[in-house]
Amino acid sequence: MDVLWVWESQNLAQRTLEHLRMFGIALALSVVIGVLLGLYLYRRPKLAPIAFNVLNILETVPTLALLVLLLPLLGLGEKPTIAASVIYSILPIARNTYTGLTSVERSYIEVAEAIGLSEREILIKVRFPLALPLIAAGVRIAVVFTMGVVTLGGLIAAGGLGAPIQTGIHLYDRDIIVVTGLWVGLLALILDGVAALIERYLRGRYGRR
Amino acid sequence: MLFNRIDSIELRGVTKRYGDFVAVDHVDLEVIGGELLILIGPSGSGKTTLLRTINRLVEPDEGEVFINGRNVREFDVVKLRRSIGYVIQQIGLFPHMTVKENIALLMRLEGWDEEEMEKRVEELLDLVALPREFAERYPHHLSGGQQQRVGLARALALNPPLLLMDEPFGALDPILRRQLQEEFARIKAALGRTIVFVTHDIEEAFKLGDRIAIMRDGKLIQVGYPDELVLNPADEFVAKLVNADKKFKHLDTLKARDIMIDVEPYLVEAESVEAVLEWMRENDREFAVLTKNGALVGTVTLSSLLKAGTLEEAIDEPLRLSPDDSLASALSEMKAKGEFMALVVEGERPVGVLLASEVLLRLV
Fold it and tell me: Does the ipTM surpass 0.85?
């Protein structure tokens, strides 16, 4: 198997950058939207069951179907790919944010109230920091989801590492498929590893003991 | 601060119900500015609920609470609570903040500048007898007693004229509880503020309280100075409570072994300051009895260890008693030497610790 040939002919360095760019944008959007949604639902807990049901249903739509459904709205390429990643990743992040904020030990909240923190100050100074480990766990799940969806984006001309896999399938070239596939897998492992380290740090810093 | 000093706190007809259960039943009580008032009673007597009506953690169903003549309902609840220090048994230090961040939390929210905060935190650590280097530690690195000291420092951060304390020493082991009570009794005068203090320990009540309010089943049974309660108890319940330990009446027949507490949990064999500190951390103690081959060497406290360079410097020579010493003579000796604790030894082997309460000392 000629790894070097695949790497150069398929322009994998360039493809990797494209891939990580999409991944980065998608994950950043997911974190922002997911955390904000989690916060919003914490303030409006009556909406939480409905919101999580809707997100759960979205979660069950197959990725390919979702990409196709987004085509008429967003066209081909990066946009529908990023949108699909975000749609999948909101659930774990929003759910963990919500759970993290609502499951802070009652005694901490009571003390915070008793010494004179306002609702808002309790949220910022106590609830949110103590929810961080759980939020990080949600983000870690989103990392894996996003990696998968971005790779599938190759099917709808989004570029990235999905593109050479597509090429490999069309040309019936086993080398291209295997080399690119392994590379995507390795990248996913590394990113998940980084996310795990961040999660572990936050658990040590803000976790319960 | 909503008020700089407390002239009086008045509770008028305060009643709180939870469903059919009446937690507090038409209580009228006045706290005099500057005093330490004890609220005491069995669990479920409503003492904590009553305490919490003062800073509006509990809103009464009937009746009113006045501070310096103003109804607490007129105050903004956040401002009210910041003007009142609050210490509880569970301590509730925030695990994600260092000791310093915990103590300085309210100062930060009040917009103090860094330098002021730094200075105030050091002052407070000194006051509660914690080394300044503890400022950067996280609560889970501290023993229960140290955490409670930080809890007290946090409550005093903004210098509130009123302090509410809900069984602050309740979760500590008996010797540590006495140590902290001693310390607290010492700084009480320096604090110079009004304190309402909940406990179910009558010895603690007598040791720390200026006046004592006795509650049962949500009702206030009697309020008064300790001697009034002892001499003129309102009913059988009060009489029993203030004489909680009937043993006190028969001092002559009692021996040291009858009321000493077991020394076993405090015994440690160690050769260095570090080893003893390690043991204290693991066992959550601030006091230890050092032995060598089972024989008594001396006693050490956490604060003496932290100050001392070598183990020898940290060791105190405790007052030694024999198990068969009569309690009366043991107590007079302790009183004469000004010790609140003595070690009971059989030959060289420590077997128990004797703690003298104020009540006992007074009765001798």
Answer: no
Domains in chain A with CATH codes: 3-206 (1.10.3720.10)
C-alpha B281/C-alpha B287 separation (Å) is: 11
Sequence letter at residue A29: L
Q: Which residues pair with B166 in a beta bridge?
A: B88, B198
Cα gap B321→B326, rounded to integer Å: 10
The class of domain B8-245 in CATH terms is: alpha beta
**Most A CBs within 10 Å, among B57, B91, B94, to test the A interface:** B94
Of B81, B96, B105, the CB nearest to A130: B96
Side chain identity at B181, as an amino acid letter?
A: Q
- Edge-first strand listing for the sheet containing B21-32: B21-32, B8-18, B62-67, B70-71
Asked if the model's pLDDT at residue B364 lies above 60, the reply is: no
Alpha-helix residue ranges (DSSP H) falling in B64-173: 77-82, 99-109, 114-127, 144-156
The answer to whether B211 and B31 are in contact (CB under 8 A) is no
Mutate to test the interface with B, among A115, A126, A132, A134 (most CBs of B within 10 A): A115
How confident is the prediction for chain B on average, in pLDDT? 88
- pLDDT tens digit string along A2-42? 888 888 888 888 999 999 999 999 999 999 999 999 999 99
Helix A174-206 with A162-171: angle, nearest 10 deg? 160
**Domain edges within chain B:** 8-245, 249-363
B interface residues, A as partner, C-beta within 8 Å: 55, 57, 78-86, 88, 90, 92, 94-96, 105-106, 109, 140, 154-155
Instruction: Decide: B341 and B356 in contact? Cβ < 8 Å.
Output: yes
- The candidate with the shortest Cα–Cα distance to A134, out of A4, A29, A42, is A42
CATH 3.40.140.10 fits B249-363, yes or no: no
Using an 8 Å CB-CB cutoff, list chain B residues near A113. Answer: 57, 81
Same fold, B8-245 and B249-363: no
Six-digit token pair at B265? 């949990």
- Rounded to the nearest 10°, the torsion over CA B54, B59, B62, B63 is 20
